[in-house]
Amino acid sequence: MRLLPTRFQPQSQSFVRWRSVVASPDWRQTVADFQRKANDTSVSLTTKDVENVVRVCTQSDRTREALDAIRRGDKRGVAAPLSSHVQICCSWARKRQADRALAIMPDLRARFGDQFQIVTKNQSSVYDPLLSVFKSKGDWRNTHAAIAQMHELGVTPTLRAFRVLMLTAAKARRKDSLITTVEFVEKKFPDVWTDVATLTAMCQALVDVGEYRRVMEIYRKLDDEWVNQEASTMLLNQFLLAAVRNGNTNNEKKRSSKSLSNFQQAMSIFDRMRESRKAAPDDFTFATYMMELEKHGKWTQVLDLFNTMLDTQARNQNVLSNDTKKPVINALSCSAVIRALHKLHEASQEENNAEDEAGVSSNSTRKSKSQQRKLKQDLLVVLKQLPTVDLRNIGHASTLIDTLDEFKLFTAARQTFKRVLDEGVIQKTPWRLKDGFEIDLHTFSRGVAKCAVVSAFDENTRAQQGISDVSLAGNAPLQDLRIITGVGRRSHTFMKPVLKQEIVDLLTKSCRPPLWPSSHPTNPGVLLVRHNALRKWLKKGGAIRYF
Protein backbone atom coordinates (compact mmCIF):
# COMPACT_ATOMS: atom_id res chain seq x y z
CA MET A 1 0.00 0.00 0.00
CA ARG A 2 1.33 3.47 -0.86
CA LEU A 3 0.85 5.94 2.00
CA LEU A 4 0.01 9.57 1.26
CA PRO A 5 2.45 12.11 2.70
CA THR A 6 1.38 13.76 5.94
CA ARG A 7 0.29 17.36 5.84
CA PHE A 8 2.88 19.94 6.68
CA GLN A 9 3.43 23.68 6.30
CA PRO A 10 5.43 24.16 3.10
CA GLN A 11 8.13 26.76 2.73
CA SER A 12 7.02 27.93 -0.68
CA GLN A 13 4.07 27.63 -3.07
CA SER A 14 6.21 26.15 -5.84
CA PHE A 15 7.33 23.39 -3.50
CA VAL A 16 3.67 22.48 -2.80
CA ARG A 17 2.87 22.15 -6.49
CA TRP A 18 5.90 19.95 -7.14
CA ARG A 19 4.91 17.65 -4.25
CA SER A 20 1.33 17.25 -5.48
CA VAL A 21 2.42 16.28 -8.98
CA VAL A 22 4.76 13.58 -7.69
CA ALA A 23 2.66 12.13 -4.86
CA SER A 24 -0.85 12.28 -6.35
CA PRO A 25 -2.39 9.99 -8.98
CA ASP A 26 -3.31 11.54 -12.34
CA TRP A 27 -7.00 11.93 -11.56
CA ARG A 28 -6.30 13.90 -8.37
CA GLN A 29 -4.00 16.34 -10.13
CA THR A 30 -6.42 16.68 -13.06
CA VAL A 31 -9.36 17.41 -10.74
CA ALA A 32 -7.32 19.93 -8.73
CA ASP A 33 -6.21 21.77 -11.88
CA PHE A 34 -9.76 21.81 -13.23
CA GLN A 35 -11.24 23.12 -9.98
CA ARG A 36 -8.70 25.96 -9.84
CA LYS A 37 -9.54 26.87 -13.42
CA ALA A 38 -13.31 26.61 -12.85
CA ASN A 39 -13.12 28.83 -9.75
CA ASP A 40 -11.06 31.50 -11.52
CA THR A 41 -13.58 33.53 -13.53
CA SER A 42 -10.77 35.48 -15.19
CA VAL A 43 -9.73 32.32 -17.03
CA SER A 44 -11.86 30.91 -19.86
CA LEU A 45 -13.27 27.39 -19.39
CA THR A 46 -13.92 25.27 -22.48
CA THR A 47 -15.89 22.14 -23.28
CA LYS A 48 -12.55 20.41 -23.86
CA ASP A 49 -11.59 21.07 -20.23
CA VAL A 50 -14.77 19.44 -18.93
CA GLU A 51 -14.45 16.55 -21.39
CA ASN A 52 -10.86 15.88 -20.32
CA VAL A 53 -11.50 15.80 -16.56
CA VAL A 54 -14.56 13.54 -17.00
CA ARG A 55 -12.54 11.14 -19.15
CA VAL A 56 -9.68 10.93 -16.61
CA CYS A 57 -12.06 10.52 -13.65
CA THR A 58 -14.23 7.84 -15.27
CA GLN A 59 -11.16 5.87 -16.35
CA SER A 60 -10.31 5.67 -12.64
CA ASP A 61 -14.00 5.06 -11.75
CA ARG A 62 -14.14 8.36 -9.82
CA THR A 63 -17.74 8.93 -10.85
CA ARG A 64 -18.66 11.51 -8.23
CA GLU A 65 -15.67 13.67 -9.12
CA ALA A 66 -16.71 13.47 -12.79
CA LEU A 67 -20.26 14.59 -11.91
CA ASP A 68 -18.86 17.43 -9.82
CA ALA A 69 -16.81 18.58 -12.81
CA ILE A 70 -19.95 18.65 -14.98
CA ARG A 71 -21.80 20.71 -12.34
CA ARG A 72 -18.92 23.19 -12.10
CA GLY A 73 -18.90 23.47 -15.88
CA ASP A 74 -22.66 24.12 -15.94
CA LYS A 75 -22.21 26.96 -13.43
CA ARG A 76 -19.74 28.57 -15.82
CA GLY A 77 -22.09 28.03 -18.75
CA VAL A 78 -20.00 25.23 -20.28
CA ALA A 79 -22.02 22.09 -21.00
CA ALA A 80 -20.40 18.67 -21.12
CA PRO A 81 -20.79 16.77 -24.41
CA LEU A 82 -23.00 13.69 -24.74
CA SER A 83 -19.95 11.41 -24.80
CA SER A 84 -18.94 12.59 -21.30
CA HIS A 85 -22.36 11.73 -19.88
CA VAL A 86 -22.15 8.28 -21.51
CA GLN A 87 -18.73 7.76 -19.89
CA ILE A 88 -20.32 8.48 -16.51
CA CYS A 89 -23.04 5.90 -17.25
CA CYS A 90 -20.33 3.35 -18.02
CA SER A 91 -18.54 4.19 -14.78
CA TRP A 92 -21.72 3.55 -12.77
CA ALA A 93 -22.19 0.23 -14.62
CA ARG A 94 -18.63 -0.87 -13.82
CA LYS A 95 -19.36 -0.14 -10.16
CA ARG A 96 -22.35 -2.55 -10.27
CA GLN A 97 -24.91 0.25 -10.46
CA ALA A 98 -26.33 -0.58 -13.88
CA ASP A 99 -29.85 0.54 -12.87
CA ARG A 100 -28.49 3.99 -12.15
CA ALA A 101 -26.66 4.02 -15.49
CA LEU A 102 -29.77 3.06 -17.45
CA ALA A 103 -31.87 5.60 -15.53
CA ILE A 104 -29.67 8.40 -16.91
CA MET A 105 -30.28 7.50 -20.57
CA PRO A 106 -33.87 8.89 -20.85
CA ASP A 107 -32.62 12.19 -19.39
CA LEU A 108 -29.88 12.28 -22.00
CA ARG A 109 -32.47 11.59 -24.71
CA ALA A 110 -34.55 14.54 -23.49
CA ARG A 111 -31.52 16.80 -23.05
CA PHE A 112 -29.66 16.15 -26.29
CA GLY A 113 -32.61 15.27 -28.52
CA ASP A 114 -31.50 15.28 -32.15
CA GLN A 115 -27.87 14.76 -31.24
CA PHE A 116 -28.84 11.60 -29.35
CA GLN A 117 -30.65 10.34 -32.45
CA ILE A 118 -27.91 11.35 -34.88
CA VAL A 119 -25.38 9.30 -32.97
CA THR A 120 -27.65 6.28 -32.93
CA LYS A 121 -28.26 6.41 -36.68
CA ASN A 122 -24.58 5.68 -37.34
CA GLN A 123 -23.15 2.18 -37.31
CA SER A 124 -22.28 2.66 -33.65
CA SER A 125 -24.95 3.42 -31.07
CA VAL A 126 -24.87 5.76 -28.09
CA TYR A 127 -25.48 2.58 -26.08
CA ASP A 128 -22.37 0.82 -27.42
CA PRO A 129 -19.96 1.86 -24.63
CA LEU A 130 -22.51 0.75 -22.02
CA LEU A 131 -23.03 -2.55 -23.83
CA SER A 132 -19.25 -3.09 -23.80
CA VAL A 133 -19.30 -2.86 -20.00
CA PHE A 134 -22.19 -5.34 -19.77
CA LYS A 135 -20.33 -7.69 -22.12
CA SER A 136 -17.14 -7.57 -20.03
CA LYS A 137 -19.17 -8.45 -16.93
CA GLY A 138 -21.31 -11.08 -18.65
CA ASP A 139 -24.38 -9.11 -17.55
CA TRP A 140 -27.25 -10.67 -19.50
CA ARG A 141 -30.10 -9.04 -17.58
CA ASN A 142 -28.94 -5.46 -18.02
CA THR A 143 -28.06 -6.06 -21.68
CA HIS A 144 -31.66 -7.19 -22.15
CA ALA A 145 -32.88 -4.15 -20.17
CA ALA A 146 -30.78 -1.81 -22.35
CA ILE A 147 -32.32 -3.20 -25.56
CA ALA A 148 -35.81 -2.85 -24.08
CA GLN A 149 -34.99 0.76 -23.16
CA MET A 150 -33.82 1.44 -26.72
CA HIS A 151 -37.27 0.43 -27.98
CA GLU A 152 -38.93 2.70 -25.40
CA LEU A 153 -36.82 5.69 -26.46
CA GLY A 154 -37.44 5.08 -30.15
CA VAL A 155 -33.90 3.93 -30.80
CA THR A 156 -33.48 1.01 -33.18
CA PRO A 157 -31.15 -1.56 -31.57
CA THR A 158 -28.13 -2.34 -33.71
CA LEU A 159 -26.88 -5.82 -34.48
CA ARG A 160 -24.08 -5.24 -32.00
CA ALA A 161 -26.64 -5.00 -29.19
CA PHE A 162 -27.95 -8.44 -30.10
CA ARG A 163 -24.41 -9.82 -30.40
CA VAL A 164 -23.73 -8.75 -26.83
CA LEU A 165 -27.07 -10.19 -25.72
CA MET A 166 -26.28 -13.58 -27.28
CA LEU A 167 -22.81 -13.76 -25.73
CA THR A 168 -23.95 -12.69 -22.26
CA ALA A 169 -26.95 -15.03 -22.36
CA ALA A 170 -24.60 -17.92 -23.17
CA LYS A 171 -22.28 -16.93 -20.33
CA ALA A 172 -25.26 -16.84 -17.95
CA ARG A 173 -26.36 -20.30 -19.25
CA ARG A 174 -29.71 -18.85 -20.39
CA LYS A 175 -30.13 -21.24 -23.30
CA ASP A 176 -33.82 -20.47 -23.81
CA SER A 177 -33.15 -16.73 -24.06
CA LEU A 178 -30.21 -17.34 -26.38
CA ILE A 179 -32.24 -19.52 -28.77
CA THR A 180 -35.05 -16.94 -28.81
CA THR A 181 -32.56 -14.16 -29.61
CA VAL A 182 -30.91 -16.20 -32.37
CA GLU A 183 -34.27 -16.90 -34.01
CA PHE A 184 -35.24 -13.22 -33.71
CA VAL A 185 -31.99 -12.06 -35.34
CA GLU A 186 -32.31 -14.60 -38.16
CA LYS A 187 -35.86 -13.41 -38.85
CA LYS A 188 -35.51 -9.62 -38.45
CA PHE A 189 -32.05 -9.14 -39.99
CA PRO A 190 -31.89 -10.76 -43.46
CA ASP A 191 -28.32 -9.51 -43.93
CA VAL A 192 -27.11 -11.55 -40.96
CA TRP A 193 -25.99 -14.36 -43.27
CA THR A 194 -23.22 -12.12 -44.62
CA ASP A 195 -22.37 -10.36 -41.34
CA VAL A 196 -19.17 -12.00 -40.10
CA ALA A 197 -19.20 -10.39 -36.64
CA THR A 198 -22.80 -11.38 -35.90
CA LEU A 199 -22.40 -14.92 -37.23
CA THR A 200 -19.26 -15.33 -35.11
CA ALA A 201 -20.99 -14.13 -31.94
CA MET A 202 -24.04 -16.28 -32.67
CA CYS A 203 -22.00 -19.45 -33.24
CA GLN A 204 -19.69 -18.78 -30.29
CA ALA A 205 -22.69 -18.40 -27.99
CA LEU A 206 -24.33 -21.57 -29.33
CA VAL A 207 -21.10 -23.55 -28.91
CA ASP A 208 -20.80 -22.29 -25.33
CA VAL A 209 -24.21 -23.80 -24.44
CA GLY A 210 -23.63 -27.05 -26.33
CA GLU A 211 -25.86 -26.35 -29.35
CA TYR A 212 -23.38 -27.88 -31.79
CA ARG A 213 -25.99 -29.26 -34.18
CA ARG A 214 -27.53 -25.80 -34.63
CA VAL A 215 -24.09 -24.33 -35.39
CA MET A 216 -23.52 -26.92 -38.10
CA GLU A 217 -26.94 -26.10 -39.56
CA ILE A 218 -25.82 -22.47 -39.84
CA TYR A 219 -22.61 -23.63 -41.54
CA ARG A 220 -24.55 -25.59 -44.14
CA LYS A 221 -26.83 -22.61 -44.85
CA LEU A 222 -23.94 -20.31 -45.76
CA ASP A 223 -22.93 -19.76 -49.37
CA ASP A 224 -19.71 -21.66 -50.11
CA GLU A 225 -18.28 -18.84 -52.21
CA TRP A 226 -18.98 -16.30 -49.46
CA VAL A 227 -17.32 -18.54 -46.86
CA ASN A 228 -14.21 -18.91 -49.02
CA GLN A 229 -13.94 -15.18 -49.68
CA GLU A 230 -15.27 -13.43 -46.55
CA ALA A 231 -15.37 -15.74 -43.52
CA SER A 232 -12.88 -15.01 -40.73
CA THR A 233 -10.60 -17.35 -38.82
CA MET A 234 -12.64 -16.85 -35.65
CA LEU A 235 -15.91 -17.78 -37.41
CA LEU A 236 -14.53 -20.94 -38.99
CA ASN A 237 -12.94 -21.88 -35.65
CA GLN A 238 -16.45 -21.99 -34.17
CA PHE A 239 -17.61 -24.30 -36.97
CA LEU A 240 -14.54 -26.51 -36.47
CA LEU A 241 -15.16 -26.72 -32.73
CA ALA A 242 -18.84 -27.53 -33.28
CA ALA A 243 -17.95 -30.28 -35.78
CA VAL A 244 -15.48 -31.79 -33.32
CA ARG A 245 -17.91 -31.73 -30.40
CA ASN A 246 -21.07 -32.63 -32.28
CA GLY A 247 -20.46 -36.34 -31.80
CA ASN A 248 -20.16 -36.09 -28.02
CA THR A 249 -23.09 -38.07 -26.62
CA ASN A 250 -23.71 -40.54 -23.82
CA ASN A 251 -25.15 -43.08 -26.26
CA GLU A 252 -22.28 -45.31 -27.44
CA LYS A 253 -23.99 -46.36 -30.70
CA LYS A 254 -24.87 -42.80 -31.67
CA ARG A 255 -21.37 -41.61 -30.78
CA SER A 256 -19.67 -44.23 -32.97
CA SER A 257 -21.99 -43.58 -35.93
CA LYS A 258 -21.54 -39.81 -35.74
CA SER A 259 -17.84 -39.87 -34.98
CA LEU A 260 -16.59 -40.59 -38.50
CA SER A 261 -18.90 -38.12 -40.26
CA ASN A 262 -18.06 -35.36 -37.78
CA PHE A 263 -14.36 -36.05 -38.16
CA GLN A 264 -14.70 -35.80 -41.93
CA GLN A 265 -16.60 -32.53 -41.50
CA ALA A 266 -13.81 -31.20 -39.27
CA MET A 267 -11.23 -32.24 -41.87
CA SER A 268 -13.19 -30.40 -44.56
CA ILE A 269 -13.35 -27.19 -42.51
CA PHE A 270 -9.65 -27.41 -41.65
CA ASP A 271 -8.67 -27.93 -45.30
CA ARG A 272 -10.84 -24.97 -46.28
CA MET A 273 -9.06 -22.78 -43.74
CA ARG A 274 -5.62 -23.83 -45.02
CA GLU A 275 -6.61 -22.70 -48.51
CA SER A 276 -8.16 -19.44 -47.34
CA ARG A 277 -6.35 -16.10 -47.19
CA LYS A 278 -8.77 -14.40 -44.82
CA ALA A 279 -9.36 -17.37 -42.53
CA ALA A 280 -5.89 -18.87 -42.16
CA PRO A 281 -5.57 -21.38 -39.28
CA ASP A 282 -4.34 -19.98 -35.97
CA ASP A 283 -3.10 -21.73 -32.82
CA PHE A 284 -6.69 -22.54 -31.75
CA THR A 285 -7.42 -24.13 -35.15
CA PHE A 286 -4.33 -26.32 -35.13
CA ALA A 287 -4.75 -27.39 -31.49
CA THR A 288 -8.45 -28.23 -31.94
CA TYR A 289 -7.81 -30.30 -35.07
CA MET A 290 -4.76 -31.96 -33.53
CA MET A 291 -6.69 -33.08 -30.45
CA GLU A 292 -9.36 -34.51 -32.74
CA LEU A 293 -6.68 -36.52 -34.55
CA GLU A 294 -5.38 -37.66 -31.16
CA LYS A 295 -8.87 -38.71 -30.09
CA HIS A 296 -9.06 -40.98 -33.14
CA GLY A 297 -5.59 -42.43 -32.45
CA LYS A 298 -4.05 -40.98 -35.62
CA TRP A 299 -0.62 -40.45 -34.08
CA THR A 300 1.33 -40.20 -37.33
CA GLN A 301 -1.06 -37.53 -38.61
CA VAL A 302 -0.55 -35.61 -35.35
CA LEU A 303 3.19 -35.47 -36.08
CA ASP A 304 2.59 -34.52 -39.72
CA LEU A 305 0.35 -31.68 -38.57
CA PHE A 306 3.00 -30.53 -36.10
CA ASN A 307 5.55 -30.38 -38.92
CA THR A 308 3.09 -28.24 -40.87
CA MET A 309 2.76 -25.95 -37.85
CA LEU A 310 6.55 -25.63 -37.61
CA ASP A 311 6.70 -24.66 -41.30
CA THR A 312 3.85 -22.17 -40.88
CA GLN A 313 5.47 -20.59 -37.85
CA ALA A 314 8.84 -20.30 -39.59
CA ARG A 315 7.14 -18.74 -42.63
CA ASN A 316 5.29 -16.22 -40.44
CA GLN A 317 8.54 -15.21 -38.74
CA ASN A 318 10.31 -14.70 -42.07
CA VAL A 319 7.58 -12.47 -43.52
CA LEU A 320 8.58 -8.80 -43.27
CA SER A 321 5.51 -7.22 -41.70
CA ASN A 322 4.69 -4.70 -39.02
CA ASP A 323 2.09 -7.10 -37.61
CA THR A 324 3.76 -9.68 -35.37
CA LYS A 325 1.76 -12.86 -35.79
CA LYS A 326 0.91 -14.98 -32.79
CA PRO A 327 2.70 -18.37 -32.74
CA VAL A 328 0.55 -21.16 -34.17
CA ILE A 329 2.01 -23.66 -31.69
CA ASN A 330 0.38 -23.44 -28.26
CA ALA A 331 0.46 -25.36 -24.99
CA LEU A 332 -2.29 -27.81 -25.99
CA SER A 333 -0.67 -28.74 -29.31
CA CYS A 334 2.71 -29.29 -27.60
CA SER A 335 0.99 -31.58 -25.08
CA ALA A 336 -0.70 -33.55 -27.85
CA VAL A 337 2.55 -34.01 -29.79
CA ILE A 338 4.42 -35.23 -26.69
CA ARG A 339 1.68 -37.79 -26.06
CA ALA A 340 1.69 -38.86 -29.73
CA LEU A 341 5.48 -39.36 -29.75
CA HIS A 342 5.29 -41.60 -26.69
CA LYS A 343 2.34 -43.55 -28.13
CA LEU A 344 4.28 -44.27 -31.32
CA HIS A 345 7.34 -45.22 -29.28
CA GLU A 346 5.26 -47.61 -27.16
CA ALA A 347 3.87 -49.20 -30.32
CA SER A 348 7.41 -49.67 -31.68
CA GLN A 349 8.54 -51.23 -28.40
CA GLU A 350 5.62 -53.65 -28.42
CA GLU A 351 6.48 -54.60 -32.00
CA ASN A 352 10.09 -55.26 -30.97
CA ASN A 353 8.96 -57.40 -28.05
CA ALA A 354 6.67 -59.40 -30.33
CA GLU A 355 9.54 -60.00 -32.76
CA ASP A 356 11.78 -61.12 -29.88
CA GLU A 357 9.21 -63.61 -28.69
CA ALA A 358 8.76 -64.95 -32.22
CA GLY A 359 12.52 -65.08 -32.77
CA VAL A 360 12.17 -63.08 -35.99
CA SER A 361 14.66 -60.27 -35.29
CA SER A 362 18.23 -60.67 -34.09
CA ASN A 363 19.10 -56.98 -33.69
CA SER A 364 16.15 -55.87 -31.56
CA THR A 365 18.42 -54.27 -28.92
CA ARG A 366 20.12 -52.06 -31.51
CA LYS A 367 16.75 -51.20 -33.00
CA SER A 368 15.34 -50.31 -29.58
CA LYS A 369 18.28 -47.98 -28.84
CA SER A 370 17.83 -46.30 -32.21
CA GLN A 371 14.14 -45.73 -31.49
CA GLN A 372 15.00 -44.30 -28.06
CA ARG A 373 17.46 -41.85 -29.65
CA LYS A 374 14.85 -40.80 -32.20
CA LEU A 375 12.29 -40.20 -29.43
CA LYS A 376 14.74 -37.94 -27.58
CA GLN A 377 15.53 -36.01 -30.77
CA ASP A 378 11.85 -35.54 -31.60
CA LEU A 379 11.04 -34.47 -28.04
CA LEU A 380 13.86 -31.93 -28.19
CA VAL A 381 12.19 -30.29 -31.20
CA VAL A 382 8.97 -29.91 -29.19
CA LEU A 383 10.73 -28.69 -26.04
CA LYS A 384 12.48 -25.95 -28.06
CA GLN A 385 9.05 -24.46 -28.76
CA LEU A 386 8.07 -24.11 -25.08
CA PRO A 387 9.78 -20.73 -24.39
CA THR A 388 7.53 -19.05 -26.99
CA VAL A 389 4.30 -20.83 -26.04
CA ASP A 390 1.56 -18.58 -24.63
CA LEU A 391 0.84 -19.60 -21.01
CA ARG A 392 -1.74 -16.96 -20.08
CA ASN A 393 -4.53 -19.55 -20.07
CA ILE A 394 -3.92 -21.42 -16.80
CA GLY A 395 -5.92 -24.43 -18.04
CA HIS A 396 -3.69 -24.83 -21.10
CA ALA A 397 -0.54 -24.23 -19.05
CA SER A 398 -1.66 -26.86 -16.52
CA THR A 399 -2.26 -29.41 -19.28
CA LEU A 400 1.24 -28.82 -20.64
CA ILE A 401 2.91 -29.09 -17.21
CA ASP A 402 0.91 -32.24 -16.41
CA THR A 403 2.01 -33.83 -19.69
CA LEU A 404 5.66 -32.94 -19.07
CA ASP A 405 5.40 -34.41 -15.57
CA GLU A 406 3.64 -37.57 -16.79
CA PHE A 407 6.44 -38.36 -19.24
CA LYS A 408 9.21 -37.45 -16.76
CA LEU A 409 10.31 -34.28 -18.56
CA PHE A 410 10.80 -32.70 -15.15
CA THR A 411 13.25 -29.93 -16.07
CA ALA A 412 10.93 -28.64 -18.78
CA ALA A 413 8.00 -28.86 -16.35
CA ARG A 414 9.86 -26.75 -13.76
CA GLN A 415 10.91 -24.18 -16.37
CA THR A 416 7.34 -23.89 -17.62
CA PHE A 417 6.02 -23.51 -14.08
CA LYS A 418 8.63 -20.80 -13.42
CA ARG A 419 7.35 -18.92 -16.47
CA VAL A 420 3.80 -19.23 -15.15
CA LEU A 421 4.98 -17.65 -11.89
CA ASP A 422 7.12 -14.96 -13.53
CA GLU A 423 4.31 -13.92 -15.87
CA GLY A 424 1.83 -13.66 -12.99
CA VAL A 425 -0.58 -16.25 -14.40
CA ILE A 426 -1.38 -17.70 -10.94
CA GLN A 427 -0.51 -14.58 -8.99
CA LYS A 428 -4.15 -14.07 -8.00
CA THR A 429 -4.13 -17.42 -6.19
CA PRO A 430 -2.26 -17.04 -2.86
CA TRP A 431 -0.82 -20.55 -2.79
CA ARG A 432 2.30 -19.79 -0.70
CA LEU A 433 1.18 -18.57 2.71
CA LYS A 434 2.73 -17.92 6.14
CA ASP A 435 6.21 -17.08 4.81
CA GLY A 436 6.20 -20.15 2.58
CA PHE A 437 5.41 -22.64 5.35
CA GLU A 438 1.90 -23.30 4.07
CA ILE A 439 1.42 -24.52 0.50
CA ASP A 440 -2.20 -24.49 -0.69
CA LEU A 441 -2.60 -26.78 -3.71
CA HIS A 442 -6.36 -26.38 -4.10
CA THR A 443 -7.37 -26.07 -7.80
CA PHE A 444 -3.87 -27.18 -8.89
CA SER A 445 -3.50 -30.12 -11.25
CA ARG A 446 -1.12 -32.97 -10.51
CA GLY A 447 1.93 -31.68 -12.38
CA VAL A 448 1.41 -28.06 -11.34
CA ALA A 449 1.06 -29.10 -7.69
CA LYS A 450 4.33 -31.04 -7.75
CA CYS A 451 6.15 -28.11 -9.38
CA ALA A 452 4.63 -25.78 -6.78
CA VAL A 453 5.93 -27.95 -3.91
CA VAL A 454 9.41 -28.11 -5.47
CA SER A 455 9.40 -24.32 -5.99
CA ALA A 456 8.29 -23.68 -2.40
CA PHE A 457 11.00 -25.98 -1.00
CA ASP A 458 13.61 -24.18 -3.12
CA GLU A 459 12.45 -20.82 -1.75
CA ASN A 460 12.54 -22.09 1.85
CA THR A 461 16.00 -23.57 1.31
CA ARG A 462 17.33 -20.26 -0.04
CA ALA A 463 15.75 -18.38 2.87
CA GLN A 464 17.61 -20.61 5.35
CA GLN A 465 21.03 -20.40 3.67
CA GLY A 466 22.12 -17.40 5.74
CA ILE A 467 21.47 -19.15 9.07
CA SER A 468 24.56 -20.42 10.88
CA ASP A 469 25.01 -24.05 11.89
CA VAL A 470 24.65 -23.06 15.54
CA SER A 471 21.25 -21.43 15.07
CA LEU A 472 20.19 -24.16 12.65
CA ALA A 473 20.74 -26.76 15.33
CA GLY A 474 18.98 -24.59 17.90
CA ASN A 475 16.05 -22.25 17.37
CA ALA A 476 16.10 -21.53 13.64
CA PRO A 477 13.02 -19.65 12.38
CA LEU A 478 11.46 -22.82 11.02
CA GLN A 479 7.85 -23.91 11.34
CA ASP A 480 5.91 -27.05 10.59
CA LEU A 481 5.36 -27.08 6.83
CA ARG A 482 1.69 -27.57 5.90
CA ILE A 483 0.85 -28.87 2.42
CA ILE A 484 -2.89 -28.58 1.71
CA THR A 485 -3.86 -31.16 -0.91
CA GLY A 486 -7.61 -31.33 -0.28
CA VAL A 487 -9.67 -34.51 -0.17
CA GLY A 488 -10.69 -34.74 -3.82
CA ARG A 489 -14.09 -33.17 -3.25
CA ARG A 490 -14.34 -31.99 -6.88
CA SER A 491 -12.79 -35.08 -8.45
CA HIS A 492 -14.05 -38.56 -9.27
CA THR A 493 -12.00 -39.92 -6.36
CA PHE A 494 -13.82 -38.23 -3.50
CA MET A 495 -12.11 -38.99 -0.17
CA LYS A 496 -9.42 -40.87 -2.15
CA PRO A 497 -7.31 -37.94 -3.29
CA VAL A 498 -4.71 -38.70 -5.96
CA LEU A 499 -2.78 -35.51 -5.27
CA LYS A 500 -1.98 -36.40 -1.67
CA GLN A 501 -0.22 -39.64 -2.63
CA GLU A 502 1.63 -37.87 -5.46
CA ILE A 503 3.09 -35.35 -3.01
CA VAL A 504 3.98 -38.10 -0.52
CA ASP A 505 5.81 -39.98 -3.30
CA LEU A 506 7.58 -36.79 -4.35
CA LEU A 507 8.90 -36.13 -0.84
CA THR A 508 9.83 -39.72 0.00
CA LYS A 509 11.22 -40.88 -3.36
CA SER A 510 12.62 -37.72 -4.98
CA CYS A 511 14.02 -36.00 -1.87
CA ARG A 512 17.64 -36.59 -0.88
CA PRO A 513 17.58 -37.42 2.00
CA PRO A 514 13.92 -38.54 2.04
CA LEU A 515 11.30 -36.49 3.86
CA TRP A 516 8.48 -38.38 5.54
CA PRO A 517 5.35 -36.23 5.79
CA SER A 518 2.55 -37.13 8.18
CA SER A 519 -1.19 -36.62 7.91
CA HIS A 520 -2.79 -33.84 9.91
CA PRO A 521 -4.50 -35.34 13.00
CA THR A 522 -7.87 -33.69 12.27
CA ASN A 523 -7.72 -32.70 8.58
CA PRO A 524 -7.17 -35.55 6.08
CA GLY A 525 -6.53 -33.03 3.30
CA VAL A 526 -3.34 -31.67 4.91
CA LEU A 527 0.18 -33.12 4.98
CA LEU A 528 2.66 -32.00 7.65
CA VAL A 529 6.45 -31.86 7.54
CA ARG A 530 7.54 -31.25 11.13
CA HIS A 531 10.03 -28.44 11.69
CA ASN A 532 12.56 -30.74 13.38
CA ALA A 533 12.59 -33.04 10.34
CA LEU A 534 12.84 -30.02 8.06
CA ARG A 535 15.78 -28.63 10.09
CA LYS A 536 17.70 -31.93 9.86
CA TRP A 537 16.94 -32.17 6.15
CA LEU A 538 18.27 -28.64 5.52
CA LYS A 539 21.36 -29.27 7.63
CA LYS A 540 22.19 -32.31 5.48
CA GLY A 541 21.90 -30.19 2.31
CA GLY A 542 18.51 -31.60 1.37
CA ALA A 543 17.22 -31.24 -2.19
CA ILE A 544 14.34 -32.50 -4.31
CA ARG A 545 15.61 -34.32 -7.38
CA TYR A 546 12.85 -33.19 -9.73
CA PHE A 547 14.87 -32.72 -12.90
TrEMBL record:
InterPro entries: TPR-like_helical_dom_sf. Keywords: Repeat. It comes from the Eukaryota. The keyword Repeat applies. Residues 347-372 are annotated as: Disordered. PANTHER family: OS03G0856100 PROTEIN, OS12G0638900 PROTEIN. This is Smr domain-containing protein.
